Amino acid sequence: MMRLLTGASPEESFEFAPLSIEAFGSTVLVEGTDRPRSVYWVHAWTVTPDGIITQVREYFNTSLTVTRVGARDSSSSNVPMPHCLPVWQSKLPDRDRKSLPGLVLAI
Q1: What are the CB-based long-range contacts (under 8 Å, 24+) for 22-27?
Q2: Is the pLDDT of residue 6 over 70?
Q3: Alpha helix locations (H) across 1-106?
């Protein structure tokens, strides 16, 4: 899938260069670039309490914002209202050089 998303040929090797690792409950986020810094990527793993990875999401050349979705009481009616709290945002390594599409990941 990475070759399709990045346009790399089968002969080209791709070396991941992680820049940061963050964890939010059962979600682990790793972001980085390739060595020449021409491709930006984010991996989102869902991990069980036993440390088993149950889901992997992979994003290439995409700015990612992670939000925690919950409910809060409305002060006027005591009806739970949806609430989204941003907890993490991509730190784009070449923000001045590239404009990337944005995506919101709800956890």
Answers
A1: 22/88, 24/66, 24/68, 24/87, 24/88, 24/107, 25/107, 27/66, 27/107
A2: no
A3: 2-6
Domains in the chain: boundaries? 2-97
Please tell me the distance from the alpha carbon of residue 46 to that of residue 55, in angstroms, as a whole number. Answer: 5
pLDDT, mean of residues 26-36: 89
Does domain 2-97 sit in CATH 3.40.109? no
* 91: pLDDT strictly greater than 70: yes
What values do phi and psi take at 83, rounded to 5? Answer: -140, 130
pTM score:
0.71
- Find the distance separating the first CA and the last CA of the chain, reported in whole Å: 24
Ramachandran quadrant class, 56 (left: phi over 0; alpha: psi -120 to 50; beta: rest): beta
Residue 56: what pLDDT? 93
